[in-house]
Amino acid sequence: MVSTLTISYLFPKFIEAEEIIRIISWAAIPMTIQATHYLPKLWAQEKNLLILYHTIVVVITQIIAIILFGTLYGAVGLAIAFLTTSIIGCSFIAVLDKIDQRKKE
């Protein structure tokens, strides 16, 4: 919140960036979860195929979201696409991890 107010004060021509920064900052949560919990765990277990599936889903989702949200909402739509892709990627890797754990049992 403070950073967006600072941006509008220092750079008054970039008012639209405030909303984009707010949206993109929410993506830090799922990205941190997958980068600190799921991906290192799968790398350590040498589950490279699961990481490949995750990456393919994230890339396809990112392309579709950019096309959909970017054309509908412009720059804010691109930020929404980034957030959506982060959430879907984290959810997908969590589901893959649960499925993999159940296979072990």
List the SSEs and their pairings.
Blueprint: H1 2-10, H2 16-26, H3 28-44, H4 48-73, H5 75-104
Would you kindly provide a written description of the structure presented here, covering whatever features stand out?
There is one protein chain. This protein has 105 residues and is mainly alpha-helical. It is built from 5 helices and no strands. The mean pLDDT is 89.
Brief summary:
This protein is mainly α and 105 residues long.
Which features characterize this protein?
105 residues, mainly alpha, 5 helices, 89% helix, 0% strand
Secondary structural class = mainly alpha
Strand tally = 0
Total helical segments: 5
Head-to-tail CA distance between termini:
45 Å
Evaluate the radius of gyration: 17 Å
Let me know the average pLDDT.
Answer: 89
In percent, how helical is the residue content? over 70%
The domain tally reads: 1
